[in-house]
Amino acid sequence: MFDRCIYFNTLALARQLERVWTEAFKPFDLTPPQGFMLRAVLAKPGLLQSELADELKIARATATRGLDGLEAKGLIERRPTKTDKRERGIAPTKEALALHDKLNAASGAVTDRLKGIFGETVFLGFVEQAKAVASKLE
Amino acid sequence: MFDRCIYFNTLALARQLERVWTEAFKPFDLTPPQGFMLRAVLAKPGLLQSELADELKIARATATRGLDGLEAKGLIERRPTKTDKRERGIAPTKEALALHDKLNAASGAVTDRLKGIFGETVFLGFVEQAKAVASKLE
DNA sequence: GTCATATAGTTGTATAGCTAATCAAATGGA
DNA sequence: TCCATTTGATTAGCTATACAACTATATGAC
């Protein structure tokens, strides 16, 4: 019905893809947003919460909630910075560091699988277009 | 950071597009999911809830919640069908019918604006690709 | 005709996202 | 120095989404 609607179709696709990632992160007991947040923390330890929110393209308040969840699972720590008492840098715990390689491997496997399903050219082209379209909306 | 991730970029784009539609539906006091659900009801009055869920590509439980909201606003009615006492057909109220043209006009205006921003060729190509990719995941 | 199974819809419970409001700390102008 | 403004993070309150469990009804095998 909304066959020509970019919002409807983009959102529906995102929900389908979320299901794939839900499976992939299930062994780690992480939802996709949690998994991506943790991957970001592992890739760039020490980021401020606001910087993390920017990386993940979510609102700061959403980052607060997500980090609460990861903190409750013992996967991240908030550390006050030395220069500004309002800021908190985010560091992975050693439990999180122990997951790093497996999490990367599982993520790579999903991407490879999706590339296989869609074809690598289509996959890469689509991602580029999504970014190009998004950048025109800013 | 997740520059090559189809899920991350698709979801981020969907959230950006949602902001555009949020503005467009604000005059009707509808969120984007509510607006799209109402448009579906107006376009195909009498659909069963399960059929509506399929059209919108959401779970049945989500359709229940969304319809609760539209019903509370006096925009739709659930009507028992004659043949099966479990089923409910969804009909727009006359308040909703009164919005039909304006809602369509506002929706068309958003799509035209986005086509202008992205370029019509890119817009249509992207939507087609999103559908093609989604169909390979089913 | 009866009972097991399937189906339509709802409810319970959880996560994720947003905006607006708030709190606390930093900054800067006078 | 002091107060107004800005900024990082949190909290409050809301919507949307999903899955699983449930209720009520329908269907079909016998």
From TrEMBL, chains A, B:
Any single Pfam family the record assigns to this protein: MarR_2
InterPro entries assigned to the protein according to its UniProt record, in alphabetical order: HTH_MarR-typ (IPR000835), Tscrpt_reg_MarR-type_CS (IPR023187), WH-like_DNA-bd_sf (IPR036388), WH_DNA-bd_sf (IPR036390)
Q: Does the keyword Protease apply?
A: no
**Protein name (Swiss-Prot/TrEMBL):** MarR family transcriptional regulator
User: Is Ligase a UniProt keyword of this protein?
Assistant: no
Listed GO molecular functions? DNA binding; DNA-binding transcription factor activity
Q: Which residues form the HTH marR-type domain?
A: 3-138
Q: Which UniProt keywords apply?
A: DNA-binding, Transcription, Transcription regulation
